[in-house]
Design brief:
about 220 residues; mainly alpha; about 70% helix
Length: about 220
């Protein structure tokens, strides 16, 4: 028997499923995906499959993933605007925190595998080598960004001051690129450097173009 509709009332419409980016499982899935490089490196170290120089492989890989996650973090806003998918913004904080996670691993791998956790040796080594000094500076700049990547910090600082602080990510990604360039220059290998430089140029160039194209007072994250 068919349902009888009351006169004057429109038929009920079924609830629309949530978009994939707003699905409750989207963030946990992204979290797992972001941990995959760490899992691969952990397994490689445990199974001794990282090659002839596992220490160098760990230091390089964690540095590479730091730069990749910085690029992914910066890519969120352009992709959100190009695709019209505003929900992409909800993943930016996680990507930024994973960039910090991998830079911590990168520094710990250097401090442990290269320096044996000898604090005095670390303190004297970093200023002597420009690539190490640049990388360490980027690491130090990332600490306040990670420490304030929470809603309470935004409220405490105020939105404007919080945005100004987090614009340090632009300097960080450029310092990371310079660090990577100097690391690869020792082996005269610039192919990957050129790829990262092109990606970063597009991401920062888009922000410059957007900033000067909009009226005063606007901002691009």
């Amino acid at each position: 028997m068919s349902a009888v509709l009351k006169p004057g009332l429109p038929p009920a419409t079924p609830a629309r499923p949530k978009p994939l980016l707003l699905h409750p499982a989207a963030k946990p899935l992204l979290f797992v995906l972001c941990l995959l490089p760490f899992g691969w490196l952990f397994y490689g170290a445990w199974a001794d499959t990282l090659g002839a120089n596992p220490a160098e492989a760990l230091i390089r890989a964690t540095g590479d993933w730091t730069l990749r996650f910085l690029c992914l973090t910066l890519a969120v806003t352009p992709l959100r605007q190009w695709t019209g998918q505003a929900a992409l913004a909800r993943f930016r904080r996680m990507l930024g925190l994973f960039a910090f996670f991998y830079v911590v691993l990168h520094f710990l791998a250097y401090a442990w595998l290269d320096m044996g956790f000898d604090l005095q040796t670390i303190v004297t080594d970093i200023p002597k080598r420009p690539f190490a000094l640049v990388g360490f500076t980027a690491f130090m700049l990332m600490i306040p960004l990670a420490a304030t990547s929470f809603n309470r910090a935004i409220k405490a600082l105020g939105a404007r001051r919080w945005q100004l602080l987090h614009r340090a990510v632009y300097a960080i990604v450029l310092l990371g690129l310079l660090h990577f360039f100097w690391m690869r220059s020792a082996k005269n290998d610039f192919a990957e450097v050129a790829v990262y430089a092109a990606v970063i140029a597009v991401l920062l160039g888009w922000r410059l173009r957007t900033r000067f194209a909009r009226p005063a007072g606007g901002s691009a994250a």
